[in-house]
């Protein structure tokens, strides 16, 4: 039951987060008509998310993942729900809207990180392998994200952006309730070391620096996500507009890739325990990244293009479950939130850089040259697991002792 509840919480919370990311900018545009105000509010949400990614780790490790997860989801519901309610009653000024958007961003990272910290205990209680449990969790996250975007678009048409924000708030409350009632696993080795908040934060960063595999994972995944941001935010839309003149194709490319990734996560969860983690990651990383840029550069027929993106998605679906399995096996329980938060912060910080680089190169070099450049950089990045021996440690079997029973509360 704890694992099923946690999987449901993953899916619902990520669907709600995607809906929030779409609904808040739409709400601002709809109510103010100002692109500048929309940018300010969106930036506030992003800054809140980035700050909480790295700063919330010591709090989760000190006070426990389950309680922080529930608190973060309730706070998210309050922050998101207050936006349409305040607009309908007392009015919503730009400073207040910016603060609420920032609070919404602040609550997302603690909730997501805390749920990831709860995952190994829930997997253990289910009598399941880490590979299978990690694959199931990633599949639910991908399904939630894939469904969240079209659901938000549809619901904005049906009930309007304020209604979607209220629906978002309700999803966060549901997730908080599910986590509080059903995700009851014993917390592993809560933080008790001296040093205070900043000392605890520094100890997590020191661990990242000492563990060469975790450092390599964070660096590689950060670069991959920066390149993906350039693809998703700039290059795919430019290809759909300039080459195919079809906004429908843009949605189809994202949809088939997401569908393939969800299928890949399920496949890894089912069969992944039989595969070598290093081999799986090395091969799938090469297949998931650079070929997408090359496919766009080749301009094949639409069916072939969609099939290629689906195959790339299948490969991408195995990446996160492998990484989650390795991270849970290597990182000591009392450091997990801080280390995972540091990795997430690096990814979030570099994604805008990737999108900006793609935009600058698109204007300066043209679409074809930019696609090939990104493909080359992506290929070099994903060759690092093959080139550096530290990645072979992914197949080590160092597993921290899991919790033995659920908390009786």
UniProtKB/TrEMBL annotation:
<feature type="transmembrane region" description="Helical">
    <location>
        <begin position="304"/>
        <end position="326"/>
    </location>
</feature>
<feature type="domain" description="Major facilitator superfamily (MFS) profile">
    <location>
        <begin position="214"/>
        <end position="409"/>
    </location>
</feature>
<dbReference type="GO" id="GO:0005886">
    <property type="term" value="C:plasma membrane"/>
</dbReference>
<feature type="transmembrane region" description="Helical">
    <location>
        <begin position="213"/>
        <end position="235"/>
    </location>
</feature>
<keyword id="KW-1133">Transmembrane helix</keyword>
<dbReference type="Pfam" id="PF07690">
    <property type="entry name" value="MFS_1"/>
</dbReference>
<feature type="transmembrane region" description="Helical">
    <location>
        <begin position="278"/>
        <end position="298"/>
    </location>
</feature>
<feature type="transmembrane region" description="Helical">
    <location>
        <begin position="117"/>
        <end position="135"/>
    </location>
</feature>
<feature type="transmembrane region" description="Helical">
    <location>
        <begin position="247"/>
        <end position="271"/>
    </location>
</feature>
<keyword id="KW-1003">Cell membrane</keyword>
<dbReference type="GO" id="GO:0022857">
    <property type="term" value="F:transmembrane transporter activity"/>
</dbReference>
<protein>
    <recommendedName>
        <fullName>Major facilitator superfamily (MFS) profile domain-containing protein</fullName>
    </recommendedName>
</protein>
<feature type="transmembrane region" description="Helical">
    <location>
        <begin position="92"/>
        <end position="110"/>
    </location>
</feature>
<feature type="transmembrane region" description="Helical">
    <location>
        <begin position="155"/>
        <end position="183"/>
    </location>
</feature>
<feature type="transmembrane region" description="Helical">
    <location>
        <begin position="367"/>
        <end position="388"/>
    </location>
</feature>
<keyword id="KW-0812">Transmembrane</keyword>
<feature type="transmembrane region" description="Helical">
    <location>
        <begin position="338"/>
        <end position="361"/>
    </location>
</feature>
<dbReference type="InterPro" id="IPR011701">
    <property type="entry name" value="MFS"/>
</dbReference>
<dbReference type="InterPro" id="IPR036259">
    <property type="entry name" value="MFS_trans_sf"/>
</dbReference>
<keyword id="KW-0472">Membrane</keyword>
<dbReference type="InterPro" id="IPR020846">
    <property type="entry name" value="MFS_dom"/>
</dbReference>
